[in-house]
Amino acid sequence: MAELRHVHISIENKVAKLVVDHPPANALSDAVLADIEAAIDSIASDPAAKVVVITGQGRFFIAGADINQLDTVKGASAGERLASNGQRVLSKIEQLTKPVICAINGMALGGGCELAMACHMRIAVDSAKLGQPEINLGIIPGFGGTQRLMRIIGPSKATELILTGDMLTAQEAYRLGLLNAVVPADQFEGTVRALAEKIAAKSMPAIRASLRAIGGGLDASLAAGLALEAKIFGEICETKDKTEGIRAFLEKRQANFMDM
Predict the structure, then answer these.
(1) Which active-site residues does the annotation give?
(2) Paired sense of beta strands 60-62 and 107-109, if any
(3) CA-based, 20 to 30 A from 19: which of 31, 81, 123, 230?
(4) Tens of pLDDT along 205-248?
(5) pTM, whole model, 2 decimals?
(6) pLDDT tens figures, 97-156
(7) CB-based contact 123:74 (threshold 8 Å)
């Protein structure tokens, strides 16, 4: 993988940390999106990483798309290309077969909120703010905000937030179900790390299967989702980790998963 200018990757205890670093506000330009995509592709194929944490450098998570770049977009075709590219990269995060925790360390607005919603879980520092303020610029969310926000918090409240451009405090976002947890600054990194390492200690085949079942059922009927779950459950019953997990439970000891 070529050297990344706007993203830093580190891996420790099977947790990959992806830090977006594009001062002053970590805005999502094409170059930043390209680095995020390259980082996700690298982590996807790295057996040393079982869980991913995405966060921002400095006091922002991601303050939004690159406004200067948006200013150069003229015409429907160019706008559609910009949105489609952002959607494609964020969908890679959502479809990753390794759990992705978004560690929201500051403002997560516009494209930043959209990236956070593409992650499987979201933890925010208590001073963070989230929102889709695109309407204040005369545009709409283009990286999935109109679709993922309503799926997470419901269409009525999502419509209100998208049409007003209002920001949510971290506490409000938690009450709406947009966040898994809100944490004081002095406990933030430790809380994120603890969750990531707790998940990383589980069986990788079971982690991957769970994500497949959850993701596959989101836009399916209940009957189709149940059928998918049963199929994946059957596949898991053939893994060595299933045998080890059951035996460990019966023998009242800690399971020693081999990720097989």
Answers:
(1) 114, 134
(2) parallel
(3) 81
(4) 999 999 999 999 998 999 999 999 999 999 999 999 999 999 99
(5) 0.95
(6) 999 999 999 999 999 999 999 999 999 999 999 999 999 999 999 999 999 999 999 999
(7) no
DSSP 76-94: HHHHHHHHHHHHHHHHHHH
Conformation bin of residue 154: beta by default, left when phi > 0, alpha when psi is -120 to 50: left
| The CATH fold of domain 7-200 | 2-enoyl-CoA Hydratase; Chain A, domain 1 (3.90.226)
* 3-state secondary structure (DSSP) of residue 149: helix
Helix/strand/coil for 180? coil
- Two tokens, residue 124: 């925010």
Environment class of 230 (CB within 10 Å of its CB; exposed 0-12, middle 13-18, buried 19+): exposed
Structural fold of domain 204-250: Lyase 2-enoyl-coa Hydratase; Chain  A, domain 2 (1.10.12)
Rounded distance between C-alpha atoms, residue 68 and residue 99, angstroms: 33
